[in-house]
């Protein structure tokens, strides 16, 4: 008996960016789109925050480059009401490199004052 080979036909790819509310096991504002750029990720985080803007949000993410992006640093700075100059991506300040952006995000998480108000934003980088 000869088995008939079946061809798998791809119809394109999609990127799913999802946030899980751990206590309830539910997804919050899942995002499905054609890409997973830094802007896509920051937009997703912004949409999650909009579901309950007065809550304190804790996002635990892996080491993907979009989780250390200029867009995410700007979003954290906005939600933490930080007025400091962030610099220029690839040139200076907090935005200089992925390392400096990751350091900023880690300090925002560790700070006692940076994000302890309504619309607070905390981000933890997981190894």
What is the number of beta strands?
4
Order of helices and strands: EEHEHHE
Q: Count the helices. How many?
A: 3
**What is the strand content?**
15-25%
Mean pLDDT comes to 82
Helix content: 25-40%
Instruction: State the shape.
Output: extended
Distance between the termini: 50 Å
Largest sheet: 2 strands, antiparallel
Whole-number count of domains: 1
The largest beta-sheet arranges its strands as 1-2
**Residue windows where pLDDT falls under 50 for at least 5 positions:** 112-122
Report the C-alpha radius of gyration, rounded.
18 Å
Describe this protein's structure.
By secondary structure, the chain is of the alpha+beta class. It has one domain. 28% of the residues lie in helices and 20% in strands. The chain has helices at 38-50, 70-79, 98-110; strands at residues 15-21, 26-33, 57-61, 121-125. The strands form 2 sheets. A two-stranded antiparallel ribbon has the order 1-2. Strands 3-4 form a two-stranded parallel ribbon. β1 and β2 (26-33) form a beta hairpin. α1 packs parallel to α2. The longest helix is centred in the middle third of the chain and has 13 residues, at 38-50. The radius of gyration is 18 Å and the shape is extended. The chain starts with 14 loop residues before the first strand and ends with a strand. 20% of the residues are buried. Mean pLDDT is 82; it is low at 112-122.
Give me a quick take on this structure.
With 127 residues, the chain is α+β, with helices and mostly antiparallel strands. Helices cover 28% and strands 20% of the residues.
